[in-house]
Amino acid sequence: MKRTLFMTLLGASIIFGQGPQGVPPLGATPKPAIPNVKPVRSCESLAMVALPNTTIESAAIDPANSGICRVTAITTHPPMGDKVTIWIAIPTSNWNGRFLGTGGGGFVGGSAAGVNQPVALGYASGATDTGHAGGSGSFGLDANGHLNWQAIRDNAHVGVHEMTVTGKALTQAMYGVAPKYSYWNGCSTGGRQGLMEAQRYPRDYNGIVAAAPAINWTKLLMQLLWGTVQMNAAGDPLPACKLAAATAAAIESCDGIDGVKDGVIEDPKRCAYDPKALVGTTAGECGMFTAADADIIRKLWEGPRRQDGGFLWYGQSRGADLGAASASRGTPLKPLPFAFSVDWLRYFLTENPKFDANTITPDAYERYWDQSQEEFGTVIGTDNPDLTAFRDHGGKAILWHGWADQQITAEGTIDYYKRVQGNMGGDKKTSEFIRLFLAPGVGHCGGGPGPTPYGQLDALVSWVEDGKAPVTMTAARRDRTGAITRSRPLCQYPLVARYKGKGSTDDAANFVCDAGF
Hints:
This protein is an alpha/beta fold and 517 residues long. Among the domains are: 22-187, no CATH class; 220-375, no CATH class. It contains 15 helices and 16 strands. The strands form four sheets. It has a nine-stranded mixed beta sheet, sandwiched between helices. The chain has a three-stranded antiparallel beta sheet with strand order 12-13-14. Helix 6 (226-234) packs antiparallel against helix 8 (291-302). The longest helix has 27 residues, at 149-175. The model is unreliable at 1-21 (pLDDT under 50).
């Protein structure tokens, strides 16, 4: 149950109204990129297609939908003995001439269900388990308890590339023509996978939507342990209700900075709320806030630091749910380390499946931090700012991140985007092929009090195929019937939405993007 909960949170799944892990909801059915194209062979005959180091396990019409051809393939890399499972879905008619890759969440590479939304809109689509089943990080160790480097590479980047190559080849085999355009749409690990494609395999996709991307993987999983380490070091385990009270106090303090009281901090970087104001106040059944409590909350917002004060990484934004990764539970209270971070320690850093994350001291934390970057940065680190080949191929990318993301701090994505700008010729030149949009009050891949963006894939298709770069993204909150109750423009970073001073504050038309409040 515990692992399922954390996978749901980190994987952009149904708790936030999303689709399968790593697959944000898609938009409208696009116009055909290849008009009047028809299959040149049957679905079942795809089982005979020969692809390097690949076995087609099955190729058959979906028994629940005769308009879908489903293919399962296994790719390996001799002599390593690995097995990467690939799921491809191809429309048997009304194919829109495009391929859409989908990703996963947490340690999950993807799922067979990930192709369902895209194929319903006419895309040929693919997903992969990236070489292992389930959401555990245990694949990081082989049968002898040593690092399984091929499995790690498959999960980090090889599996998605193989899926992409296989999916496009099978689509071409069925229709006699290759997809005219290929797109990626993913969140969390799915966002990381998309940007990894741009960095390592820049010709795989024409366009990429990367939401809340887990690109700083080796830092992210250590950052999510920061609260546990601090609480244990101070002997002060904070329950979820105190962390929630601190978040609510920060929102109350900074909500009005943008001139609109809506329960959302528009730009958390402008919020300097100090939790010392909580000391001596009550958090209901959790009791009174102490100075030690305030110190831990401050450190969660500040982010990991070395013992000498040196910067390691960013913390959670004020307004994000601190309890999602750092709350203590049980009787007596005890910090509950973030599940994926526990796996990272057990199966990657210590190579000890029984390692107890609650034993980490501040000194050990610093050592594991350095090991995480040094040992695994080159294989799963997805923060290379040189996107020259992707840009020169004509690639376009839309990045978006919720400011209230409770797991992956938005500042990590901002950090990467700024480095891309520095490497690729500055703001103007960079925005010709990649743009970042921040969503105030939005949690991990969705949810939260802020309006969630929609139509990102539609905007990407328009940018790639029609040359219409997105100036803003539209975001909305909806009621249970799906009706929009609040809309806002999401501005291209670093611009923010400012209320014009007239009209409803629930209508995006009454906001303008500018440099500040």
